[in-house]
Amino acid sequence: MVAGQLEEVGLAPSSIMLEPAARGTAPAIAAAACLIAEHHGPETVMGLFPADHLIKDQDRFRLALDQAVDLAKGGRLVTFGIAPRSPHTGYGYLQAAAEGAKDGTPINAFVEKPDEETAKRYLSRGDFFWNSGMFVFRADAILEAFEIHAPDILNACRAAAAGASQDGLFVRLLTEAFGQCRNESIDYAVMEKAQGTMMVMLEAGWDDVGSWEAYWDASKKDDGLNAVQGDVVCEDTQNSLILSDSGLVATLGVSDLVIVNTPDAVLVADRRRAEELKRLVARISSDDRNEASLHRRVYRPWGSYDSIDQGSGFQVKRIFVDPGKKLSLQRHKHRSEHWVVVKGEAEVTVGEVVTRLTANQSTYIAAGVVHRLANPGLEALEIIEVQTGDYLGEDDIERLEDDFNRVDPDE
Q1: Strand order in the sheet with 398-401
Q2: Were both Cys, which of 37, 114, 365, 401 would link to 329 (CB 3.0–4.6 Å)?
């Protein structure tokens, strides 16, 4: 997904590092810093920018970023502070050494998410700022900080980076070594303990859209102060966030709700309690349900697939193959497959026979037969796949040849 989005905006990255396990921002940054120092030089300036942040004024952001880079070149660990607009309890805070902090200012303390009374006190003081969670530093500077404050994470990440393999655009860290890292954020592991940290004021319309409340706050509202997206009809509804990408959602006589309708699941929550969503996710995970970690639409290096129906002995998928991409040469022990082309042109390999199929044409692959699907065209290929058999798990894939050098059948 990242590679495809970068391509859409005309950017060509030299590499994309893949984490083999979720271990928080600290191990991710440590591993990236190891690779950057090795391949681009230890004094290379690197940045951390979470993907769920909204920055409305990009020109002001660039000015602040230039200032942060200048400070980082001198060996400083730099973060961005946001002037608080409310006593928000969902953000961490920075205590700056000087009120206002228009220029790069030393940080006295990183403060955890406060309760409401404490947040109000921070707001009235003038020297506390929201912690944006964005950082800029030299690779050697952050590695030195890890050496001092989190050597266990650094040692594991050095081993993971040293054993990394290059898979075209993707860098795959050594799974066993990276898995030894404790799950930790960069704030807890390093920034809260490091000396000489600096803050740059960011006045660029920043929002952390990491919660439903933040999403509602950043969205355009209707006359009832509802933020709606998708097929939504509201009657006598106020102050709600209603999103649907899976059919009609209609509301009547409700207020202060978050309603999110997706092909995976439906969420209905009190908007004032949206920060407690982690409790709900933990409950779903403890019940051994996969909705907490997996989407119905699954992305692969060649495109994606959407499991639209399944039952005893069958499963139906919509498969989307990007132009010029192809799936692995493979076979299945337990299932047969029927393919129907909906859009585009498919190059289909079944055994020793290679054919071209277009819209409304189909083919059949019996269990045990070597096969491959490719998109030789310039537009996206879409097919319907009907699987039948006594076992339909994704691990029933034996890859014989693969452009992406995958080993795990879930990749």
Answers
A1: 353-357, 346-350, 371-374, 329-331, 398-401
A2: 401
pTM (2 decimals)?
A: 0.74
Q: How far is CA 46 from CA 2, 49, 74, 122, 192, in A?
A: 18, 10, 13, 30, 19
Q: Are 319 and 382 in contact (CB under 8 A)?
A: yes
| Whether 137 contacts 48, CB under 8 Å | no
| Per-residue tokens: 269 | 């929550």
Task: Find the helix packing angle between 139-149 and 151-162, rounded to 10°.
Answer: 130
Token couple for 134: 């964005």
Phi-psi region of 124 (alpha: psi -120 to 50; beta: other; left: phi over 0): alpha
- Measure the CA–CA gap between 23 and 156, rounded to whole angstroms: 12
Domains of the chain (ranges; CATH) run 2-208 (3.90.550.10), 212-286 (no CATH), 297-401 (2.60.120.10)
For residue 82, the SS3 value is: strand
What is the separation, in whole angstroms, between the first and last Cα of the chain?
13
pLDDT tens-place string over residues 3-40: 878 888 888 888 899 999 999 999 999 999 999 999 99
CA distance 295 to 316: 15
Residue with tokens 């044409």: 361
